[in-house]
Design goal:
heteropentamer, A alpha+beta (365), B alpha/beta (375), C alpha+beta (528), D mainly alpha (283), A: alpha+beta, Rossmann fold, OB fold (Dihydrolipoamide Acetyltransferase, E2P), 2 domains, six-stranded mixed sheet, five-stranded antiparallel sheet, 23% helix, C: 528 residues, alpha+beta, MetI-like fold, six-stranded antiparallel sheet, disordered N terminus, binds adenosine-5'-triphosphate, binds magnesium ion
Chain lengths: 365, 375, 528, 283, 365
């Protein structure tokens, strides 16, 4: 058992007027991996640092296993952390960097060597064990930082963008490695990343932060398929969701959203929170992911007309930036038959995959 | 761990130290139960060390020091008066002058070990005939001027050296009651004379110890006024001799330097005062004095030491003893210590020609009186 | 560290903690009281004994047993030596010469006492040797009556009493703690007050009231929670405390304490071993120039001006020379770096006493190396100590030579902490060598150079040796600085330590002002 | 990095340095000259080379014997080395801990403490000899090497503390944070992370502490009352008397005392290396 | 005109036995953006640092505009660089950090302010202009590092993973911003990244490095569609290409690859380098990208049988890890009807989208 709870956490840095984190409540169930995502500067690292005990919260409590650790030093929390900035010991070799935490625990030297070497192998660091950090490449340093954390086998892991400097292939391997270690150690983990694949594949739960405020907590699928508000919808998913302003007209048992140059029937079943007997017209934002737009009709889709402004080839796929009457649209489609910039296209939109947000509150309807 | 026996501090080095140690060894052989331990202390730190150590009971039982601080230490209760042990018989061993230097305020505070005064050293190659009078000196200077050789080198701005002219012109620093007599016509004359020496290139303007020695050794100065400590500084191949200081032609009086007596003094906090006295009595005694005179080249104030054939026949020693006829004891009044530095400053200014002797001495007297103890 | 861990501290423990703290203080007070009272009593008893004996022998009666008393004669002054005199002592009917050999142990005491009592005053005192003997001497018919008692041992230190009282106090505190609430404060109050009982018995009212006051203060502190807060502070910052305490203890005993004494001495006048409180006299005397006009080199303000110039000139030179050399010597490509560095610290490594004298010799008018050099390049002789400007320069040159290696070493060290990356970034940004120095090196040197400059200016301000040895104040006294002046108060103007200390205090205040601005510069670099 | 065969600028710099060193060393040469020249006094003239060479002064120096016939030089050199090394160790250890606390830990009175270290230096030391003497006397530390070591260390502490604090401030905080997470105690962080990285600073302060103790003679000759406890500078200073001095002996002593300093510095300067924190953190 | 040429560059670090870069020749045409990719530690940063003048090559020459700059200091190369480790000036505010290079050029203060503020706005750094770097989040620091480089408008840009610590949305914005600046300034740029989207969208040319050796230089499409060897094929594209060992049997005018449990007809037209009259059997590796595998037959596809071992949901898509007789297969497909782990599936492979590599030399056939 090792759950982690943040309650009423507030953090304000000296000399900065606005608190970075105004009031954060978060429970991370034991043995789960929670991924924190959010825009740059939203307070992810700060949260991790408070859990680690490196920053004292201005207010609020942090509990590990139900024990109040708010004022405990990091050493008494049994935590390992991968720093966003690595923070390698520059005067120690890679081996010593990884062994340091184990030496402190007075493990036998043989055991230390065994564990460090095993970890180094799994991170592809074997050839560099005797090097100092300054003779490593960026990605190698980052792997040492990961190694130093995982070799310690603590009950709580904190990862702050641990894979950001690795190439895609290595990142995939490392991701699976981290997942494996997490599973094997049965540890609780918080993981900050900007990589959607990491977030989707690693997370038991994803927490979306904005300006230190939780926007949504949920499973990856939830976050992707039922974003709680326009921010989450737009933040999560690459390329990000298209938003079209529209007016929602509700009839008996049916509704439709009408915007500049389009009208979409809204399947009421999909929008449980629609007020049954509301005013005739609601100002909404219709959201639709680029991958749900297509250049051909496949069902009872609705077409939008526009001109291709830009075409980005991503390999098997192409992202088209289309200027339509309703606003700019991003369409993700197969590389095969994609039109060129300047072409006029019809973009088809499947009413079943739209998301509706209140235009004022930006909350999901 | 308190050392057993009697502890004596001194600031001697070189031959003086060796000689002193020899006499101490002689005592220790004779008195293994009351040995004397010698501790050498650098001169720079000596006086302050004594002033701080003795009142707190950390000082020595005995120490050797020139007379000039006796007034201060006696007043502050740092040193022990010796009349209890010293009777006329003991006192009579020393020249009256040297013993008098150890007296202050009606008590005797030390037994004299050596007296030091300035004499005239000369190079026979440059000055075949040593100057007998100041006129001779000026004449000598005339002969040497072209060769860029000074007739005499001495630390001219130092009152200690300048005092020979001061006294030769009939002046004093302080009268017998300790009152300052700095600004007097005689003093002005003496200063004017000293300035003329510099101005006429007879003597260098500002020569300090090491420089004087090298000038003498390198043949840049025909004569030098200095004390017995000068001998080891003289180079190996220099044809040097000593004689007494010249007579001041203007007054007909001999130039009379200060004489300092170094005495052995007893700490007021000595552990065993009787034993300490026994040691000082021995070390300042005639037998020890002979050793110090021979091995340490000291001019000892013990009258009977010169019964020793070798000492009596030593021409250099004879000159020093002769000079002692024309000396002025350096005052041991505490006020004397207020005089040195300002006097040197004033004298330096006069010698450099930046100040007028009379005015300068008047200002000097006023300045020093500010700091002296009102009697 | 957390609030909760303190509320869990048992009340009893907290009470006893405060009691222990107060108990230590109280014991110190009580012990001092005890020693004072004990010595006073002993002295009174012994002196009384001696007085009665002295009176007895003066009247021709026998002294009390255990007291050594006798009549010492008037002195007989030697005819040849006015400062020698003999006295005789009449004792047990016999008369003998004092000081003749052999003599008995107390003879010297009798002789000295007689000398002192000669002036007419009665002496009644304990001998300063700590033996517990008293001496009384006064004039009497036929000479001076003197009595010396036998040694007396003082009463032993009452350990048992103290232990008992401590135990009693502790139980009172414990009782209060167990009863709870208001009884806690009462317990503390009563417990500490118990420690005053022995002092009451010794009738040491001051000590007793001090301890009682302590009891009230501690109880009050406990009441408003100050003692808890204090204790908590100690625990919270225990790491800081333990890291800092060795330095703090050593500094406060060996540096701060002499410093405070030095400050205090400025309010006293010293004359022949005695100190008299004179208030601000010393300060006014110094600040008013002691009767010298402003353009007189003995005027305080004149000297201050010279001192400030001296300090500024030196520090500027030390830093420029030191940093420039350090920059050169930290070049990667420099061969023989170690040798150069080693040779360049030589001026620091050789005792400056001799090198300062060498410089003085080099500046000597006729034969000095500097003038020979000037000659060689066709310039005339300079009488270095003949004018203020040249004498001052000679001092500054010497001191720069002596001082640059220190700055150089400091800068050498500091240069190495600058991350290479920053230079890389700057050169990619197009910065020239000078711009890199100006914008990267200098700002990063500041944290190390700042203290060195601050301390360096303090040392230079108080640099005694160089001035003393090189120019010696010449010409006139015009190149003296404040310390040399203070030194003269202390050693050349009649041991006026009070004046010297007052001048030291003024120096201190000036430097304080200076560093208030100086440290501002240093501090601005410190991470918040 | 590739070294280029010949670089005019570098050669010029080397040449300039050599000239500069020669100028700087001129007075030192004069001291050496005196040390090897016969006689007590210095000779005139600017030549830094002695006309006659003798090792007499060195023989006098090494051969000086105390009242009991013991070799003073060996004894006092040993004292000096012990005292200087002890001062270095004590001074650096005390200052390191204090500087670490002042640099990294936040506690009330931190700034005041820092300022105090400076402030207490401002009273002219010459005038504090007497109070210091009294305090040492009360503590029973007179005439003891321990006392001297303590006095020297405390003299060195303010500079050391301030300097080391500067160095500690320059170390990335993240390293300590990483170590704290790794479970290291404050002491261990200090010893295993901070100290190795502050090596240049420690070298500088060590040299400074060493120098504080090594060349000092006023306190050594005032506080020590036993010739067997004197330090070398006291022995050397003894060659200066009231009226005259044996400059040859003094110079020989000065030359001899400066050698260990240079050796110490040569060793220490190897710690004056840069880039210790390179590669530690990003950003 | 400002082209950049590396010729015969060799770089060996002191104390490392093997040269990091054995022999590199590279020409970057003026005004182009070249993206360097390669696994962690392959020498990308080293190459950039040599171009910047921060490391001297052990051998070889670097020419900018035809001028030999190999031994010129960086300041004389008119280069701006975003360091992988940021290398911000810690004692300067964000504003001063960005203004530094301009101050050095003695631009008028007003111009400096204008340019810095404009750059700060485009990077979202406006609120932080007066902060010191240590009070910034990781992403903010990285943006300052970018800002410091772009504000200077040099002729050559070097970007070392400039967007690695930014969230996806910001990364997209920044990427477009960098493209815009590059276009506007008409500068030459080298760009290191691990992000496939960045590489594909920004690059005029992509250079794939491995152990300091160029594996392929080409347009993004080339690299993606015609990887020069197995390494490039596997490295570029996420998830990476599937490789199946097979024996190639060549008949007259037709060929087929037969592996464990499959046989694929090889369209000879696709493989121009096939030796016309080679031995009957060639040992090859068949590569196929995960997105080219499907769970349903769409043309003349060949089926492979396997069991789903893992299923990673990435939002609209799912990556299936399938164990087949031919080896492990990664299949990228729609989230909709994807099978669960344990299900047996048929994976269909389109012979037209296969890549063939020689098994020994790993070169593309
Ligand atoms: N100073 C150095 N001394 C020795 N080896 C070094 C040094 N710097 C880098 N290396 C080694 O050189 C190789 C290339 O490093 P480089 O930094 O160029 O890699 P990179 O391609 O940028 O990798 P990454 O994507 O991880 O940043 C690495 O294996 C690294 O360990
Ligand atoms: N020491 C500090 N002082 C003041 N403000 C700070 C400090 N550290 C961080 N901040 C601010 O707090 C906010 C949150 O920082 P934090 O490092 O938690 O962001 P983050 O979510 O980790 O961002 P990123 O993804 O860029 O790393 C940022 O706006 C940052 O500028
Ligand atoms: Mg962060
Ligand atoms: Mg790199």
């Amino acid at each position: 058992m090792c759950d982690l709870e943040l309650s009423g956490i507030r953090k304000q840095y000296d000399g900065v007027a606005r608190p970075v984190i105004p009031d954060l409540d978060l429970v991370i169930p034991a043995h789960k991996m929670v991924v924190l995502v959010g825009p740059s500067g939203c307070g992810k690292s700060t949260t991790l640092r408070m859990v680690a005990g490196l920053e004292e919260p201005t207010a609020g409590k942090i509990l590990i296993d139900g024990r109040d650790v708010t004022h405990l030093p990091p050493a008494e929390r049994d935590i390992a952390m991968v720093f966003q900035s690595y923070a390698l010991y520059p005067h120690m070799t890679v081996f010593e960097n990884m062994a340091f935490g184990l030496r402190i625990k007075h493990l036998p030297e043989a055991e230390i060597r065994r564990r460090v070497e095993a970890t180094a192998d799994s991170l592809g660091l074997r050839p560099y064990l005797e090097r100092r950090p300054k003779a490593l490449s960026g990605g190698q340093k980052q792997r040492v930082a990961i190694g130093r954390a995982v070799v310690r086998q603590p009950k709580v892991f904190l990862f702050d963008e641990p894979l950001s400097n690795l190439d895609a292939k290595l990142r995939g391997d490392m991701r699976r490695e981290i997942a494996r270690i997490h599973r094997e150690l049965n540890a609780t983990a918080m993981y900050v990343t900007h990589d959607q694949i990491e977030a989707m594949t690693l997370a038991d739960q994803i927490v979306v932060l904005k300006d230190g405020v939780v926007q949504q907590i949920g499973t990856p699928i939830d976050i992707y398929e039922k974003p709680a508000n326009r921010f989450v919808a737009g933040f999560f998913g690459t390329p990000s969701m298209n938003f079209l302003e529209a007016d929602l007209t509700q009839g008996a048992g049916s509704a439709s959203a009408r915007g500049n140059g389009f009208e979409i029937p809204v399947p009421i079943a999909n929008v449980p929170s629609l007020r049954p007997a509301a005013a005739a017209v609601d100002r909404v934002v219709v959201g639709i992911r680029p991958e749900r737009l297509s250049l051909a009709k496949t069902g009872d889709d609705v077409p939008l007309r526009g001109e291709v402004a830009m075409r980005e080839v991503l390999g098997a796929e192409v992202v088209l930036h289309v200027e339509s009457a309703a606003g700019p649209l991003t369409v993700r489609t197969d590389a095969g038959a994609a039109p060129r910039p300047g072409d006029t296209v019809q973009v088809w939109l499947d009413p079943k995959s739209i998301h509706l947000f209140d235009r004022a509150s930006e909350e999901r309807l | 761990s308190e050392p057993k026996g009697v502890v004596l501090w001194h600031a001697y080095n070189g031959d003086e130290r060796v000689a002193l140690e020899a006499t101490a060894t002689a005592w220790n052989t004779a008195h293994p139960d009351q040995p004397v331990t010698l501790v050498a202390v650098p001169y720079d730190a000596f006086a302050d060390k004594l002033s701080s150590a003795i009142p707190r009971g950390n000082g020595p039982d005995l120490f050797i020091y020139p007379q000039d601080r006796i007034g201060d230490w006696a007043a502050a209760g740092v040193i022990e008066p010796l009349e209890f042990w010293v009777d006329d018989a003991r006192a009579d061993r020393f020249t009256e002058q040297s013993l008098g230097a150890m007296a202050y305020h009606g008590s005797l505070w030390g037994l004299p070990m050596t007296v030091k005064s300035l004499v005239l050293y000369y190079r026979s190659d440059l000055a075949p005939e040593p100057p007998k009078t100041t006129a001779d000196l000026l004449a000598l200077a005339g002969k040497l001027r072209d060769r860029h050789v000074f007739a005499v080198a001495y630390p001219s701005p130092d009152l200690y050296a300048h005092a020979m002219w001061l006294h030769g012109f009939g002046g004093r620093v302080m009268d017998d009651d300790g009152a300052l007599t700095i600004a007097t016509p005689q003093a002005t004359q003496a200063m004017t004379f000293a300035r003329s020496l510099v101005a006429q290139g007879v003597a260098p303007e500002d020569a300090q110890g090491p420089l004087i020695a090298s000038m003498f050794n390198d043949g840049r100065a025909a004569t030098v006024v200095s004390g017995p400590w000068f001998i080891p500084d003289i180079g190996r191949n220099v044809p040097w001799h000593v004689t007494t200081l010249p007579i001041v032609s203007e007054t007909g009086k001999p130039a009379a330097p200060f004489v300092t007596a170094e005495g052995i003094l007893m700490s007021a906090r000595a552990k065993d005062k009787d034993a300490a006295f026994a040691v000082m009595d021995f070390l300042s005694g005639d037998a020890s004095a002979v050793v110090r005179a021979k091995a340490g080249h000291q001019v000892v104030p013990n009258i009977h030491a010169y019964d020793d054939k070798e000492l009596a026949g030593d021409p250099t020693v004879a000159v020093f003893r002769a000079q002692l006829q024309h000396v002025v004891p350096m005052p041991n009044d505490p006020n004397m210590r207020r005089v040195w530095t300002p006097y040197r400053t004033a004298l330096g200014e006069v010698l450099a020609g930046r100040d007028d002797p009379g005015a300068s001495l008047n200002a000097l007297q006023r300045e020093i009186e500010k700091y002296t103890d009102k009697k | 560290m957390s609030e909760s861990s303190y509320t869990r501290v048992p009340v009893l423990g907290r009470q006893l903690r405060d009691f222990m703290f107060a108990g230590v203080l109280a014991l110190v007070i009580a012990s001092a009281a005890f020693v004072g009272v004990r010595n006073r009593e002993l002295a009174a008893r012994q002196i009384d004994l001696a007085t009665r004996s002295a009176d007895a022998v003066a009247d021709g009666r026998d002294a009390l047993p255990t007291v050594h008393a006798a009549i010492v004669s008037e002195p007989r002054i030697s005819t040849k030596h006015s400062y020698l005199r003999r006295r005789t002592i009449r004792e047990g009917g016999k008369t003998r010469v004092l000081g003749a050999e052999p003599h008995v142990a107390d003879d010297k005491l009798f002789y000295d006492a007689a000398n002192r009592a000669q002036q007419g005053a009665t002496i009644a005192e304990m001998l300063p040797d700590g033996s517990g003997r008293a001496l009384v001497a006064h004039k009497a018919p036929g000479g001076i009556a003197i009595a010396i008692t036998a040694p007396a041992a003082p009463a032993p230190y009452p350990f048992l009493v103290f232990i008992g009282v401590l135990g009693l106090g502790a139980s009172l505190v414990a009782a209060g703690a167990l009863v709870g609430r208001n009884a806690q404060r009462l317990g503390t109050l009563a417990g500490i007050a118990t420690l005053a009982v022995p002092t009451l018995l010794w009738q040491s009212w001051v000590a007793a009231s001090l301890i009682l006051a302590l009891a009230f203060v501690v109880a009050a502190m406990q009441h408003i929670g100050v003692s808890d807060r204090f204790a908590r502070g100690l625990v919270t910052h225990r790491v800081a405390l333990s890291f800092l305490s060795p330095a703090a203890v050593a500094m406060s005993v060996l540096v701060a304490a002499p410093f405070v004494i030095g400050l205090l001495l400025g309010f006293y006048d010293h004359h022949q071993g005695t100190w008299t409180f004179v208030g601000l006299d010393n300060f006014t005397r110094i600040l008013s120039g002691n009767g010298h006009s402003l353009d007189d080199p003995l005027n305080f303000w004149f000297i201050l001006g010279v001192t400030v110039l001296w300090t500024v000139a030196n520090i500027a030179l030390h830093v420029t020379v030191g940093v420039s050399l350090a920059l050169l010597l930290s070049r990667k490509w420099l061969r023989g770096k170690g040798i150069f560095r080693m040779l360049l610290i030589l001026p620091w490594a050789i005792p400056n006493y001799i090198t300062a004298l060498m410089w003085k010799g080099m500046f000597q008018g006729q034969y000095g190396a500097v003038n020979s050099l000037l000659h060689a390049v066709g310039l005339g002789d300079v009488s270095w100590f003949g004018s203020w400007a040249t004498a001052f320069s000679a001092n500054v040159i010497t001191n720069t030579w002596l001082g640059f290696p220190f700055m150089m070493v400091v800068a050498l060290g500091a240069l190495e902490t600058i991350p290479k990356e920053l230079y890389e970034a700057a050169s990619v940004d197009g910065a020239s060598a000078w711009q890199r120095f100006r914008h990267i090196t200098l700002p990063h040197l500041r944290p190390a150079l700042g203290p060195a400059v601050a301390l360096g200016s303090i040392w230079t301000f108080n640099m005694f040796n160089v001035i003393f040895l090189v120019s010696g104040g010449k010409p006139g006294d015009s190149t003296n600085i404040l310390v040399t002046d203070a030194y003269r108060w202390a050693f050349e103007r009649g041991d006026r330590y009070g004046m010297a200390a007052a001048e030291g205090t003024i120096i201190f205040l000036i430097l304080l002002l200076w560093t208030v601005f100086g440290t501002r510069v240093v501090r601005s670099k410190e991470p918040a | 990095m590739k070294r280029r065969a010949f670089n005019v600028r570098h050669a010029l710099v080397h040449a300039a340095l050599i000239v500069l060193v020669a100028v700087v060393l001129y007075p030192v040469m004069l001291v050496c000259k005196k040390a090897f020249e016969p006689g007590h006094a210095t000779s005139l003239g600017g030549s830094p080379l002695p006309e006659h060479v003798t090792t007499q002064h060195f023989r006098d120096l090494f051969g000086a014997r105390g009242p009991h016939g013991e070799l003073l030089f060996l004894r006092q050199a040993a004292n000096s080395i012990i005292i200087a090394l002890a001062t270095t160790v004590v001074g650096v250890v005390i200052s390191c801990t204090a500087a670490y606390a002042l640099s990294r830990l936040r506690f009330p009175g931190r700034k005041a403490g820092l300022t105090t270290f400076l402030v207490v230096q401002m009273f002219p030391a010459t005038l504090l000899m007497l109070p210091l003497y009294v305090i040492l006397d009360k503590l029973g530390l007179l005439n003891s090497m321990v006392g001297l070591v303590l006095v020297y260390s405390t003299t060195a502490i303010p500079f050391c503390v301030w300097t080391l604090k500067g160095y500690f401030d320059s170390l990335p905080r993240e390293l300590e944070e990483a170590a704290r997470i790794d479970g290291a105690s404050p002491w261990m962080i200090f010893r295993r992370i901070i100290l190795p990285l502050a090596r240049p600073g420690i070298a500088v302060t060590a040299l400074f502490s060493f120098m504080t103790a090594w060349n000092e003679f006023i306190m050594a000759s005032t506080f020590m009352t036993d010739e067997s406890k004197y330090t070398l500078p006291v022995l050397i200073q003894s060659s200066v008397g009231q009226f005259s001095a044996d400059w040859g002996l003094f110079a020989a002593g000065a030359v001899v005392t400066s050698i260990p300093v240079m050796v110490a510095f040569y060793v220490l300067q190897r710690s004056l290396v840069g880039g210790l924190t390179a590669g530690a953190v990003k950003g």
